[in-house]
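Support request, priority: normal
Reporter: lab tech (M.K.)
Component: structure prediction queue

Hi team, I submitted a job for ABC1 atypical kinase-like domain-containing protein from Nonomuraea coxensis DSM 45129 yesterday, and the status page still shows it as pending. I've pasted the exact input below so you can check whether something in the sequence is tripping the parser. The sequence length should be 659 residues. Please let me know if I need to resubmit or if it's stuck on your end.
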Amino acid sequence: MDVLAQLLIALFALLTIVLLAMAAQRLLGVRFGTVRTLVAALAAFLLAQPVLGPLLTALDIPADGQLPDAGALGVLLLATMAMVLIPMVLLVLAEALVPPGSLPGPVELLRSLRGRVSRARRYSQITRIAIKHGLGPYLRGRGERLEDRTGKVRLARSLREALDEGGVTFVKLGQVLSTRRDLLPAEFVEELGRLQDQVVPAPWAQVEPVLVAELGAPVEEVFAAFDRTPLAAASIGQVHAARLPGGEDVVVKVRRPGIGAVVAQDLDIVRRLAATLESRTRWGRSLGLRDLAEGFAAAIREELDFRVEAANMAAVSAPPQPGGAEGGPRVRYPAPMAALCTEQVLVMRRLSGRPVTEAAPEDGPRLARDLLDCLLRQILVDGVFHADPHPGNLMLLDDGALGLLDFGSVGRLDAAVRSALQRFLLAMDRQDPLGVTDALLEVVPRPEDIDEAALERALGQFMARHLGPGMDSVQMFTDLFRIVAAYGLSVPPEVAAVFRALATLEGTLVRLSPGFDLIGEARAFAGRHIAERAEPAAVRETLTQELAALLPMLRRLPRRVERIASAAEHGRLAFNVRLLADERDRRYVTGLLHQVLLTVLGATAGVMGVMLLGTDGGPQIIPGASLFHLIGYNLLMISAILTLRVLAPIFRRHPGTEE
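Reply from support: The job had stalled in the queue. We restarted it manually and it finished. Here are the results:
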């Protein structure tokens, strides 16, 4: 009998806990996790005895089986609401203090601890490197503000040395920053531009397992010949010469073993470091370090996947290329062997030639012109362009053409951005400040409070200063980026890639042909492009496309005009505006009204409860408490329940989520 009684008591307790959990979740109107809700109900059940015991003890309930009077029922109702109110309070407090997902599970906790230990070691190493090169105060946001050029050069050199010692990810970060003249002073751009990622190649004993695993067969079965000595080695991969069984010469690019885990860890540190610097330092907020780090991480992840590079090669080489004097393309690209390309191995046809820096001086202007024409065509016409055209990615082929290599970094532009860039270039050629301003504000997001007249004057002065004979293209890019930054224009990542490519291209053109007239050649390209668009075939194609788009509308236009004119003539012309036609808008407004109504009802019940508690007199229910007091306490409970109902959805709305 005792065991049966204990089982009945346990069953009653379990049923009470479940009912409390269901009631609390139903009254709050928000779905909580099952474990969280049951824990809150269990806590309420355990607290019920010490909290409600004295109240029930003071209540005189008949022992002869008679029904309790109205006062006793009111006290029982108050006790029931108090029991339901306890888990509601606990759930809302838990939602506010410990949101769902903020506490990891056991497996996630173990992985997190391992990651923290590994990250702590890397943090310690990076911190030692930063302190060694005198960057510690700047990481804490307490570095001195440098105004003189000597101090900036010294700080830039320390930053370059620290990034170089930090490893592959930080070297790549420095290389990306060296192209952002819109963000960094010229001293930093110049110093970071000296970063090189040439490293000692990985030994064949480490490279061969990667090839076998990725290709699914021994190297001797896939290739007729394979040179184990690499042609070149960089931080992410190294390149070997090989020959296919069919006799075709190819180049095999292999990702360095273990580089994926190292880069992933460093990228996590870069993101965390960027978030910290953006929140703690003024210069970090001005540079937008968080967004910069995210864009950098995405670019590095693409570079690690050689399948992306193979797709980039195919995309860049797809449009027809203009031919040279011999009829072949003036700039050529290696073609990937799709069947042999994997995440860690890239096989492509080999281009025969030598480094472009070994070109004869008399060939420099022609090569520079061909390269500029190729990149401008990629950016303005094709929409897919090589984003890193530095001299190391160029070859002088045996027939005198240029070879463009390494497509790990490729930019893409949609038709609208390409059209705006074309108008920007043509307006620059005409030296039209209004046209340049309009085109620039189409390329970048338009701020709400921009002074367009002042921006137009600044661009006019910029063109008057730089678009004349003997201009300095390096200073021109720097001044343009300063104007963009001064007027708070946020450059989208795809447009920033264009600026980065052009800034890199400018240095390459100077290496190929000192004194190369970049602006003059760009104007010549614009003239040729306009001439191509003005050819009869191009004009006919453009008109055909426009007419095909306009013809359906033109067919319907007369009937619609006639209907409008007839309705206006007979006084039946009216305008119908449907407010809240979208179901989502109606749902949002309805929810808002519900929240307002619950807030008003809760406040009203609370005020009435306080007023009744302050009222003397009335029938006595229990010693020291009248009927007015009992009703007041119940109204306060109702006010608390309604208030919690309003607060629960508020705490559930986390940043970046929608109800």
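Residues 535-570 form one domain. The chain has 24 helices and 13 strands. Let us know if anything else looks off. Ticket resolved.
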